[in-house]
Please model this.
Amino acid sequence: MPSRSEELRRKRILQRKLAKRKDKPRFLRYLSWRFWKFERKEYWRKPKGNDNKMRLQIKGYPPIVKSGYGTERSIRGLHPSGLEPVIIHNKNDLARVDPKRQIAYIASTVGLRKRLEIIEEAKKLGVRLANAGV
Model:
């Protein structure tokens, strides 16, 4: 269990991360602005060509992925609320969730009937659900 000062530190870092998210560039695949087939697939591919202007980081080309853009390790992977995400598949999984530290996601494979049961049980236990919208 983290100490009170550690929790406050994590909250401050999380707020800073959310504020800086606007400054972080969208990492584009090279020539995605030119070819429709790349424009549809918005995923990063490292430029590897010998004379590739993006790889050479020439002015006017989009930035490439570098280590400096990463998130601090203490808050990496956290929900924007600052809670640790946990995936729930059934009502029994809810018993293992700590409402103070964790937020639950209902697995995408869970059907409507079981989903409604999980939502009802989560309300009883006081567990927050990130994707409770039915």
User: Anything to note?
Assistant: The first helix runs from residue 4 to 20. The radius of gyration is 21 Å. The first strand starts at residue 84 and ends at 88. The chain has two domains: 4-73, 84-125.
